[in-house]
Amino acid sequence: MGVLGSVGALLGPAAVAPLPFPSAAANFGLSPSKTMAHEVDTLFSGCAFRLSNGRSLGYIIVGDLNSDKVVVLCNGNPGSRLEARVHGNSAFAAGVRLICVDRQGVGLSDPLKDEEDNSFKQFASDVGELLDYLCVHRYSVVGYSTGGPAALSLAKFDERVSRVGLLASVAPLSVFGTNDMPMEARFMFFLSKRAPSVLTALISSMVDNHLSRKKAIKEPQHLDRLIKEFTESRVWHGTDKEYIDNIDWTRRRLLMVSTIEAFRQGGKGCTDYGNLITNHWGFLLASIDVPVHLYHGEQDETVPRTMTEYLESRLRYTKTRYIQGQGHLSLICRYMGQALKDVTQDLESNPQAAF
Question: What's the burial of 137, exposed, middle or buried (CB within 10 Å: 0-12/13-18/19+)?
Answer without folding.
Answer: exposed
